[in-house]
Amino acid sequence: MDDKIRFCTAPDGVRIAYASVGSGPPLVKAAHWLTHVQYDLESPVWRPWVREFSRQYTYIRYDERGFGLSDRDVENFSFQSWVQDLETVVDALGIETFDLLGNSQGGPVSIAYAVRHPERVSHLILGGAFASGWDHWNLEPGQLELIRAMVTIMKNGWGRDDPFARRVFTDAFLPESTPEQQRWFDDLQRVSCTPETALRLMKEVGNLNIEDLLPKLTVPTLVLHSKGDLVIPFERGRDMAGRIPNSRFVPMEGRNHILLPGEPAWQRFLSETRSFTGIREPPDYSAETSETGEAGGIDRRLAAIMYTDIVGYTALTGQDESLALHLLEEHRKLLRPLFTSHNGREVKTVGDMFLVEFPSGLEAVRCAIRIQAMLSKRNESLPRDRRVSVRVGVHVGDVEHRQGDLYGDAVNVASRIEPLADPNGILITKPVYEQVRSRPDIKTESIGSRELKNVKEPIELFRVLP
After folding, report:
1. Which domain holds residue 337?
2. Are residues 448 and 359 in the same domain?
3. Are the C-beta atoms of 274 and 27 separated by less than 8 Å?
4. How many independent structural domains does the chain possess?
C-alpha cells in the first residue's frame, strides 16, 4: 500500500499529520485517542482497517494535535480544536463531499462537523461512539472511583519501562485480542503521546457534551456498537442513536472497543458500512486456503521467529524524545542488514520491536549473536545515554503466513520469551537449543522452565552465552 503522509496547519499554527491510501470515494476517519499514522501499516490492530477500507475507498486518517506525527506541544487542546483539525484536513485535501467515520472519541467530533457542514458529509458512520463524557453519565460511586483510579494509573505509570500500567487500558480496549495485538497496543500508548497529553485528553473527553447537537443532524447516519464494549457502554451508543433523526442502529456481538479481524463484529461493521455508503462487497477469498501460499490462501510451515526490542526505550522516550527517535532509527539501520545476511525476513517493526522470520534456529541465533557483538562494539566508545542495548528471543515452531503477516503459537512464544532475556542477552527455547547444541561456536546454559501467558505447557529456556 502506498501510504502518503502529509502535513497541514490549523488556524492556530498547529501542524497536523494526515495520510491517504487507496482509490475510490473518500472516507475520512476522524482522529481519536491513540493514533500514529506512521505505524498504522505495521500494526496488527490498525493495519486491517487500512487494508480493508483502502480496497474500495480513498481512506484518509490523521493524528490529532498532541499525538503521533502531529505537533506534540500544543496550548489549545479543546474539543472545538479537534473539530477544527478535521476541518483543516479535509480542506487541505480539497475534497468537497465525503463519507465520515467517527470511532470512539472521533464520534462526537464527527457529529459536530456534520452539524456544522451538512452539505459536505455524504454519510456519517459512528462506531463505539458517544455524545457525552463520563462526567455526565450519573455513575454509581464505585464506577466513578474506578475511572479515577485509571487516571491515577495513567498519571504515575505510563512513563514506566514495563507495560503494567498501560496494560490496564489495553485490557479494557482489547479484551479479546492476541498477545501480539496487546503488545502493539501497549507500545502505541507510549509512542503516540506523553502521559501528560493522555491526561489532558482524558479530562477533556470526560467533560464534553454534544447531546444538544444530536437532533440537529440531517445527514444519513449509521450507528454501530458492540454489546460488550468495556470502554463505552452499549447503552451510550443505543441512546445516542435514538436521539439522531432517522438514524440506523446496529448492535454487534463482541467486547472489543476497537474491532479486530476474526471477531463477528468486524465483518458486520465492514459489511454494514459498505452497504450504507453504496459500496459493493469485494470478493471473499477467505475460504480459499491452501498449504502452498497461493493467492488468498494460508502458507503453513516451520520457521524460526525472532523478537527484539530496545532496553529502556520507554523511559528514554519520556526523558528525551528526539534522542530516542534518533537512536531508534540508528538501531533499525544497524540491524536490518544483519537480518538479510542471515536469510532473515523482516515481518514487521512496531516501535522499537522487530519481528523477523528465519529458515532455521541456527541462522536466527547466529544473527542474534552478531547483533549483540556489533552493538557491544558500537557502545564501547559512546556515553551511556547514547548506547543501544537490545533483548532477543528466538523460538522455532509452526507459523501461518497470511497476507504478509505471521500467526501461530510460535509467534506468541517468541514474543513472550524476549522480555525475559537479560539486557544485551539472547534467550532461546528448547527446539532452538536442539538445533545449535552441537555447534562449537555457540555456548548455552539452561535457566529452567517458565510458564508463559496463553501457552499451555511450561517452556524450557536457554541463555546464549557471550
Report:
1. 299-464
2. yes
3. no
4. 2
